[in-house]
Request: fold
Amino acid sequence: MTSLYLRDRWFEDLPLGEFHVFGSHTFSELEIVEFAETFDPRPELTNPKQALCSHRQGLVASPWLITAMWMRKMVDYMEVYAQGVNDGRRNGAGVAINDLQWLEPVRPGHTLTYTYEIVAKPDRVIREKWGLIRSRNEAFNQYRTKVMQFEIDILAERRPKNSDDPQQQ
Amino acid sequence: MALQSSILATSIAPSGHLCSNSATLDKDAIVAFAARFDPQPYHLDPDAAAQSIFGGLCASGWHIAAVATRLITETLLDNGLPFIEMTSVSHLTWSRPSFVNEKISVRIGLGPSLTDSPIAGTHSQILEADVCNDEGVVVATMTATAAIATDGAVP
Reply:
């Protein structure tokens, strides 16, 4: 018996419809400003007072901060509910995203909850080793309004043809 | 999070594309971003990265996306397009890893312009962006929609 579950499975073992809530994050004014200073250093995004005069009438999070935080919540979730990320099979890299939309502004103090659902397993074999897991990912704010969505294709190692034991690599 | 940005002249290529300045992602910047947003071994630890699918320490794909968007923003503003915000990305592919000290720049194709936009006072501009390293190899491609101020004024 193994205690590993989430990331220690072959491509073939991951079911369509698997759903996870990665967790929630409350965005602070400080991290919103710090991200913008590095990646979008315009005064209306880095200076709360000037932001009042912007089209958003106040400070909002950079779109990529909202999406990068999804990655952090996913990694944290996998660390807690799986065991480490050092095993090669569990290191599925993302290769592409589709239909990424930022739907509503995220302001300091807003709390987003990130969800993940496996929606497709495209019939492809990459470098004779990997399959693709397509997940739909969404973020909801504290009013239960969806503020972001995208689909991502992540590599998952296929079970070797000569392997009978799903835990043997 | 340090972002080293070495400035080259923005220019319009003969093809009609806009070419951005470049940004160099050094090891500190790659590790700082990963520690905050993508703490996986191949973005944090050179030894673990050497054993990984990527074969070396490389930037998080989300780091590349954010840097590319900064370069796109600067390029559009420099060319008189009052960029407000990126509102959607219909497709983004990471085609190869970006390793330490690679110099990233973006070749931007301007697609259709649409009156519809989720942000009041703006219209939508479709962008076809190729993110390249200093050897001209494409590391990522992105089709995005940007909100552009319709009255021409940067707020």
Q: What stands out?
A: Residues 1-11 of chain B have pLDDT under 50 and may be disordered. Helices of chain B lie at 27-37, 41-44, 46-50, 61-78.
